[in-house]
Prior knowledge:
Blueprint: H1 5-35, E1 43-54, E2 57-69, E3 77-80, E4 84-89, E5 95-100, E6 102-106, E7 111-121, E8 127-136, E9 141-151, E10 157-166, E11 172-174, E12 177-180
Amino acid sequence: MKFTYRNIFTGIVTILFVTMLFSCEGNLKGVQQMEMPEDAPQAIGAGINLKYTDSGKVVATLRSEKMLDYSNKAFPYREFPNGLVVEFIDEEKKKNTVTANYGVVYNDTGLIDLQGNVVVVTSDSTELTADQLYWDQNNNWVFTDRPNTIRFKNGALNEGQGFDSNQEFSNFRSRSNVGVQILEEEKK
Length: 188
């Protein structure tokens, strides 16, 4: 091969082109991040209606007007600023419903923080209301340190400051409370 100015020029242009190609590819992520404000969500969803299935059966639904996805953050989370409604459906098709004015789901910890007019209605018509309620999905545990009211199907009422329970509410511990308990006498 003869070295001519044309061959040298072509080689230089090729090297520059390849260098620019690789440098642009490496900076694409950086350019995308510069375009997005630091506190902006990665995605915004509107009119959310999610269905969670297990073995082909719907076990839960989630509805919300708006979802902000911050999965791009160091501590990823999804936010529901306009509230949400979640329905849990058991094997017998019984529904438990949770509503709140605001919610946050923390991806790494499995913790859900519900705030503002939180209402839980179980399939047996037990109703729990609270200002804030946490649900630990990993441990299937529900808790709060805030004021709460529980109205049971039989008319019993419990008003308290904080409680924790398994998510089925079969192992319930109230911290401080007052209430009305309905006791039925055994007939002999």
